[in-house]
Design goal:
The protein has 236 residues and is α/β, with parallel strands linked by helices. The chain has one domain: Isochorismatase-like (Rossmann fold, 3-Layer(aba) Sandwich). The protein is 43% helix and 16% strand. It has a six-stranded parallel beta sheet, sandwiched between helices. β5, α9 and β6 form a beta-alpha-beta unit. The radius of gyration is 17 Å and the shape is globular.
Length: 236
């Protein structure tokens, strides 16, 4: 697990701008989706991964805990899988021009549907009622990457909890774009994994200052339970 380090100066700037430390703490569970980004063998399984993130395995228990809490309180769980398709060599040539041919070939192999790298990590608790959405860019929300935004809006979702790997690439890209598409967005501090603590913390700080909220797994489970209980009480 990462050693979380959010400077107090960052927290102070957030409070000055928003009036409180956690602007999305009053989330509605029924309108909330847990979006789990790229927890695939392509990023987690040695010998198969094209971009190995060893820390990703350590966040699996928190993702599973949060997924259970989201389901139990009436929310939606979405598993995002990066998928390579041949047209990316043309439509996303900039990316492939920025890596060596060897790395590009390894990415293609790892993320092609049907290959071992494309599969979700075996220890993740994926349920039949969950959604699985494929994307073809770092962000799941950028135009042409997936239909995730439409799926969530059809379900009345307005709040997104982002977990997965890598914190500062696909997770942050997805979270930033979610906010700019008008979703309330929270990055889970101990539910995202990067290659280094520095990468992880820098990404969370940048996101927190401008784009959305950051909370721990325990804090989010408490928020979900508190709101669900209050709604149950009000209905009695």
């Amino acid at each position: 697990m990462h050693n979380l380090s959010i400077p107090q100066s960052v927290v102070a700037r957030v409070i000055e701008r928003r009036g409180r430390e956690h602007i999305h703490a009053d989330l509605d569970p029924a309108k909330t989706a847990l979006v789990v980004v790229d927890m695939q063998n392509a990023f987690m399984l040695p010998g198969v991964a094209h971009a190995l993130c060893p820390t990703a395995e350590k966040i699996v228990p928190n993702i599973n805990r949060l997924a259970r809490a989201v389901r139990e309180t009436g929310g939606t769980v979405v598993w995002i899988k990066t998928t390579f398709t041949e047209d990316a060599l043309r439509t996303w040539s900039t990316y492939f021009d920025m890596v060596t041919p060897e790395h590009g070939a390894k990415r293609v192999q790892a993320l092609t549907a049907g290959n071992e790298g494309h599969q979700l990590w075996a220890a993740l608790e994926v349920r039949a009622e969950d959604l699985i959405v494929e994307k073809n860019r770092f962000s799941a929300f950028i135009q042409g990457s997936s239909n995730l935004a439409e799926i969530l809006r059809q379900r009345g979702i307005d709040t997104i909890l982002v977990t997965g790997t890598v914190t500062n690439v696909c997770c942050e890209s997805t979270a930033r774009d979610a906010m700019m598409l008008n979703f309330k967005t929270i990055m889970v501090t101990d539910g995202n994994a990067a290659v280094t603590d520095q990468d992880h913390n820098a990404s969370l700080c940048a996101f927190y200052l401008t784009f959305g909220d950051i909370m721990s797994t325990d804090m989010l489970i408490a928020c979900l339970g508190r709101t669900a209980s209050s709604k149950l009480t009000a209905a009695e």
